[in-house]
Structures are given as structure tokens and as C-alpha cells.
Amino acid sequence: MSSYTETMYLIYSKPIIPRVGNKRVSSRVFKGDLLDKSIQLYRMWFLFLRLGLDLEDNNIPIFDHVNKKNTKVRVNKKFYKDWDLEKVKNVKFDDWWKEKKHLFIETSPILTNEIDNVDEYYYIKVDKRLRIEDVVREVRQLLKSKKTHPTSKYIIHKQHKYIPTHMKYNVFIWKNMGKTRTQIINLLESSYKYYDIRSPKDESSIRRVLRSSERLIIDTSKGVF
Q: Rounded distance, CA 181 to CA 92, Å?
């Protein structure tokens, strides 16, 4: 049984081309803002959420391989209340990010003469005469045993790798466009040939990627990425 019918098409979501170098994939700093993960993973979160909205609005089901039946995607509007979902559907990520980046950037250290009664902060006294490298070394040592957590409102929970996640997105889109698994294999080979990564080479591998992408769409729609 197929996950889709030939008459059901995505409206908001299109295939994407990988155009990012290794440095931007790994860097946690984007235009001066500190993030918990690379900006490219937040971009993928945005695109997978758009995909979930696309499936919901256009009544395109995802096939539940466990229960052997189609299941409808439902985006958790309460969880995503700050995201402006109408803009997620139609606005480019870079434009949307300018308005919403405050939801994702990490708290940066600042110089202060005031102490807030807040548990989330450490207050460290530093002699202004010390060398910067000595201060950095000592602070690192002081915080070495402390548990760290992201400070942003919205957090990426899973351990994603950018290019494999990028592939999952495109495989789902291509499948919805009616591409055969052989055609998808060829598209993957041509699209990702400049990246040092193994792409699926047979139909069973495409099936596994497709199932993984479906699971990610469902999880993302619930608020877990």
C-alpha cells in the first residue's frame, strides 16, 4: 500500500538544493548570534514543520507502517504558538528568522554590576588586572563540573546531521511528486555528489530513508525535532 495518492500534492514545500559548506554546517554562531546548534538545523526544523503544515492543510496522509494504515498529520498549534505558522507556510526561512531568532538564540555572558536573584546564573568575580587567557582558563575550570543546558525557548532535542536530514526532506518531497525509487536514487546521487556522504543506492535504502522522514515529520509536528 502506498503512503500517498497521485492526486494529492504539496503546496508549500519544494525540493531544496544543498549549497552549504562544511564550516556553516558546524558553526554555532550565525551573524553574531550564539545558537545551541548550527543555523542549518534550525532551517531544517522550519522546513519539516512547513511540510507538516502542508500535509495537514492539504489532507495528505502519512502511512503508518506499524499499524498498516494512513494517519493524518496534526501540527501542535499550542506548542508552535510563537512561530507565526501562516508565515512558516509561505515566507522564506531567512526572512522569518529575522523576526523569530529571539526564540532560539542562547543567552550571552555580559559584564554587570548588579546581581539578580535568579538560579539560572553564576556570578564570578574577576580581577580586572588579570590576563584574558588566564580568566578564560580559570572560568572554564570553575564550570567544568557544571551541567549545561540550552537557554533558548525552543530547543533541538535530537542528534541530527545536516546532510542526512536534508536528504530525508528531499526524498519525501520527491516521493510526493511521483518520482520512482530509481529516479530518487539518481536525484540523490546528482544532488549530493559534492558531499562526503553515502547516499542510498538501492530501493530498500530509499524505503528506510522515507520511513525515517515520515517519522521526523510526525515528531516535528508534535513539537519534537
A: 29
Q: From 46, 65, 42, select the one nearest 54 (Cα to Cα).
A: 46
Residue found by looking up cell 558553526 in the block = 27
Tens digit of pLDDT for each residue in 52-97?
999 999 999 998 776 778 889 999 999 999 999 999 999 999 999 9
CA 146: distance to chain centroid? 27
**3-class DSSP state of 220:** helix
The residue type at 109: P
Only one residue has cell 532560539, namely 104
- Phi, psi at 210, each rounded to 5°: -60, -45
Q: 119 phi and psi, to 5 degrees?
A: -70, -20
| Strand spans (E) along 150-216 | none
Determine contact, residues 45/225, Cβ cutoff 8 Å: yes
Q: pTM for the full model? A: 0.82
The Cα 96–Cα 48 span in angstroms is 15
Chain centroid to CA 10: 20
